[in-house]
Amino acid sequence: MMYSSNDIIHSGPVDFDERMAEHEGGIMAISSRDVVTIPPTTTIITAIRTMSENDFRRVPVTNAGTNRLEGMVTSVDIIDFLGGGSKNLLVENHYKGNLLAAVNASVKGIMQHDVASISEAGGIDEAISVMLDTNSGGLPVLDGDGRVLAICTEKDFLRFAESVINTKKVAHYMSRKVKNVTPDTSIGNVAKTMIDNGFRRVPVMREENIMGMVTASDIMHFLGSGDVFHRLMTGNVHEALDEPVDSLISKELVNISIDADMGNAAHLMLEKNIGSLPVMDNDKLAGIITERDFLKAMSE
User: What pTM was estimated for this model as a whole?
Assistant: First the structure.
């Protein structure tokens, strides 16, 4: 099924600078207060299940007694560890290839320790700047003692962006150089492609036709569900990672025209609960627009 954004209508452009001024100093106004944290002693397998069940791309790691921030675990860290990249060396070297022992180790071994964050008194413009400078998809919001109060993610900014950048065009902000994979590429090799290139998502294409998008979170959710999760718990996940990636593609292909504005793109991404859109020009893939591109647009 093909879904297009051509019929989306907005009431009209809103002055971006005016909206930013309204929220100056108010990062808490757009942050998610219902934030789930885990202690550093949490097992990796539990972190995978927690993130999968809650549809999270990242979860802050905090001290169990004080709730002070100690690190962050993302879906990219998970697929890196399970075979996509350098963190997999932990499985091979430290755990002698014993995946069962590795996934039952504490998340402290794979979490990001040097985590970008923002004060509860911080501003929206500051958060955008920090996220772009540190290539972060989400910032924990901290009180004066370093305790996690909320989290501000690219998706939170997408909600904000929907009404404030209507006049800016998708064509100006999309990524035109797109690396893709084929439907028969193994899930494990797709994970490696993401890690090696610093991507969180890749399009799946058959010749010149786009079949869908696959994200790091899709792979993590796949690993955290049903029979695959059982195989992961018993240390036998390699067979699952050898499956072709087309099994992770949604049947509904959501895309947007190269002539669309950023407000339309934000609306469609929020409606469909997705973090990126293929951008089409005369039925050909012209590029991809992602949540990060909205941060770039708002930073100008």
Answer: 0.81
